[in-house]
Amino acid sequence: MSFEGLVGAVWRKSSFSGTNGGNCVEVASLRDGSVAVRNSKAPEAGTVFFTREEMAAWVKGCRAGEFDDLT
Fold first, then answer.
1. CB-side neighbour CA atoms (13 Å) of 53
2. pTM value > 0.70
C-alpha cells in the first residue's frame, strides 16, 4: 500500500485511549479491503497494513487473552 492509498482514509481510535491524547492506536478500513493501523501520536512514523483475515485473527487473539502478558 502506498501513501496515496491512505488518502481519504477515515481513522478511528479506541474509546479506551482517553481524552488527553494518551497512548493510542488508530485504525482505518481501506478501499482495497485491508486495514491500516498507526500510532495516533506519531502518524508520520508509519502505517502497518493487514488483510481482513489477519485483523480477524488478531482481534480473536485479543478477545481470548492471548496477548495479555504484553500489557
1. 0
2. yes
